[in-house]
Each structure stands twice: as C-alpha cells, then as structure tokens.
Amino acid sequence: MNPDIIVHSSVHEVEFWKRYHILCRMLTDLGEQEHLVRAIRIEGSIPEKTRDEVIAVLRAEHTQNMGVFHDFLVNFISMSLQGLHHVDISLEFSFRTEGPILCQKIFLHVDQHIKELPQEECQRIISQLSWILEESQPDKALIRIYERHQERFDRDQGADLNRCRLEIRREVYPGSTFHMNLRLPAEVFMEEEFGQAPSSNENGHPGDSTTSTQGT
CA of 169: how far to CAs of 86, 142, 160, 212, in Å? Predict the structure, then answer.
C-alpha cells in the first residue's frame, strides 16, 4: 500500500466487518460440507464403492476449501492489527506424557463475538507444540511458551490482561493426562516462531495462568 494514502477509519471498519461476515459464511459452508460427508458415510442405500468415491471427492474439495479458508483467516487477522479490534484464538487440548496432543476445540474471538474454528486449524497449531512431549515436564514447557507471549502483550504493550490466559489441569488417575486451555492474540499463532522452544534463560512468572490437579 502507498504510505501516502490514508484509509479513513470508517472505511476500515466497514471492510473489517465485511470480511468477518465472509469468514462466518465460509465456516458455515465448511460445516455443511462435513455434515454431508457424515450423512453419506452412514447412508446404507448407497453402494460401498460409490459411497467411498463420493466421500473421496468431497474430502479433496474440503481440503482445498480449508486451504482457502486458512489464507483468508490469516489475512483477516493481519487486517485486525490495523484497527482497534481484538482478535484472539483459544485452544482446548489434552495429552499424555507419551503423546499425542489431542485437540478438543478451537475458537476465534473477535471482540465479543466467538466462533468455533475447524479442527484442521487446531491441528495446524498444536503440531508446532509436539516437542513439549519430549520434555520431562511438558506442562512447564508450555508455561514457558505462554510466559514469552504474555510478557509481550499483557506487560510490554499494556494490553487487556484478559487476552492472554493459560489454564492447566492434570488428571492423575488412571493415567497422567494434562488438559490445557490456552488463549493468546491470534497473530501469535500465525507467527513462524510460535511453539519454538524458549531459550533456557527465558524465565518468569506464569502471569494469570492457573494450574490445578484432579484425580478421577
């Protein structure tokens, strides 16, 4: 964009919410496509070979649409940095110390609006965290990642303290399982360095993160 051209804030607002509604429509379409695949899979009147072929075509189309959606989401998040809106992402996931990391839910927070995102977006993010399973204390490794970004947004930038949150619950029986709820500004998850192991000298306090232990 030409630096001499200034876009009026009202124009930015209109475009921002226009893109948000497009994003919502894309989410609806992706959900309907998933519903169609599930319906065809359990439809007994369709020959198995035909059913498998139809599902394969729909899956290929869904994968392509997910790529388009991801690019649109990244651009939407980038656009949010130019205005006064808060766009965050929260993840709910769990893992045993032997792995793997399992995604439960992922949400996009746009100011006070909340939309659930496809599981593929959650898998894309948590795949960058697989290295924590190699740590002796994977929960502590995740806290170090959180602290790095919480320091950046909640402290250095004086942002809204509610934007960064980490909740950790450990289930000790019948096996050791960690349940995580992580929320950070959405731009964090789009950066290449997200999920990278912090250097050994990155120590601090977990901010508003909470840890609890539960036995079942």
Answer: 27, 13, 24, 5
Nearest partner of 22 among 61, 75, 64, judged by Cα: 75
pLDDT digits (tens, 9 = 90+) for 68-77: 999 999 999 9
The SS3 assignment for 24 reads helix
DSSP H or E segment with residue 108: strand 101-110
**Same domain (yes/no): 127, 69:** no
**Residue 158, both tokens:** 């004086």
Q: What is the pLDDT of residues 198-207, one digit of tens each?
A: 665 554 444 4
Give residues with Cβ within 8 angstroms of 108, minimum separation 6: 73, 87, 88, 89, 114, 115, 116, 117, 186
The DSSP element (H or E) to which 74 belongs, if any, is: helix 48-80
Q: Same structural domain for residues 120 and 165?
A: yes
**pLDDT 10s digits, 75-112:** 999 999 987 889 999 999 999 877 789 999 999 999 99
Domain count, the chain: 2
**Range of 61's domain?**
9-80
158: left (phi over 0), alpha (psi -120 to 50) or beta: left
User: Which residues, in sequence order, are bridge partners of residue 165?
Assistant: 183
